[in-house]
Specification:
This protein is α/β, with parallel strands linked by helices and 274 residues long. 34% of the residues lie in helices and 20% in strands. It contains eight helices and nine strands. A nine-stranded mixed β-sheet has the order 3-2-4-5-1-6-7-8-9, sandwiched between helices. 37% of the residues are buried.
Length: 274
């Protein structure tokens, strides 16, 4: 996937197609903001399944990321009947298809992805599930069993469609405070076996004038470095007034990867294997 945070990429952390990533955090820390930044700023085309947040909330958040304006300013503009600027920004942003079913089951997710493929003639490049606990397991599984079943389904979905699948999830215990380093064992239900990447988010003790620093802990990473004990992290800047989560500093020459890198990689790999 095109790079959104170069500080994570420098650690070998990449959101890769055909794989499942998980973003975990306490409520209110910013995991939805983090993943919405990934979906919008990567330029990827796909689906954001927003079971945890309603349409108006996500519209305000997306408009903030697209324009750089504060969410409160956007809401006030709509209340005053002056939301034309944000209507335009949202209408022009066509990369991501949003779904707002509050309790999707696995069949609904599969049908949504299939409908996307019929509509655009291609599989989505990214699928976001926000979040895991909202999924209804029609097979009757509850808690850990149901969530393991969902993760197995998402893993198969990623392989079948070659999409990058990101699922959001909660933490437990003292980690629910949201202000201490996260460990892999803090993931609710210990649902950590099938995904290739697990990123934990928690606020640091420092403050910046433009936002509170957000620690991104690399808890699992099959393609690079990780530390299940929370010893490997980068600090990002979280300006949740504008729903922006960014690197602390810009990296000269950083601009992600070309949009066609996936197709080029597959072509070169196939040629090598022949």
């Amino acid at each position: 996937m095109p790079t959104v945070w170069w500080s994570l990429a420098d650690l070998g952390v990449h959101f890769r197609r055909s794989q499942v990533a998980m973003v975990v955090a306490a409520p209110g820390v910013g995991k939805s903001a983090f993943t919405l930044n990934l979906a919008i700023r990567s330029g990827a085309k796909g689906i954001y399944m927003s079971a945890d947040s309603d349409e108006v909330t996500q519209a305000f958040r997306a408009a903030a990321i697209l324009t750089g304006d504060p969410v409160a300013e956007i809401e006030n503009a709509y209340k005053a009947g002056k939301g034309e600027k944000y209507d335009k920004a949202l209408k022009e942003f066509t990369n991501v298809w949003f779904d707002f079913d509050a309790s999707p089951n696995l069949l609904h997710i599969e049908e949504e992805v299939t409908a996307y493929a019929y509509m655009y003639g291609r599989w989505p490049e990214i699928v976001v599930l926000d979040n895991l606990v909202n999924v209804f397991d029609e097979s009757g599984g509850e808690g850990f069993v149901g969530q393991e079943s969902t993760m197995a389904f998402l893993t198969e979905l990623a392989r079948k469609t070659e999409a990058q699948v990101t699922v959001l999830h909660h933490v437990v215990g003292d980690a629910e405070s949201g202000d201490q380093p996260l460990k892999l064992k803090d993931v609710r239900g210990k649902i950590t076996k099938l995904q290739t990447l697990v990123i934990g988010l928690a606020y640091t003790e420092d403050f910046l004038t433009s936002g509170r620093p957000l620690g991104a802990y690399v808890l699992k990473n099959r393609s690079g470095k990780a530390d299940a004990a929370g010893g490997l992290s980068v600090t990002l800047q979280a300006d949740l007034d504008r729903m922006m989560i960014t690197d602390l500093a810009e990296k000269p020459g950083a601009g992600g990867v070309p949009d066609d890198v996936w197709d080029d990689f597959k072509r070169d790999f196939i040629e090598t294997m022949q």
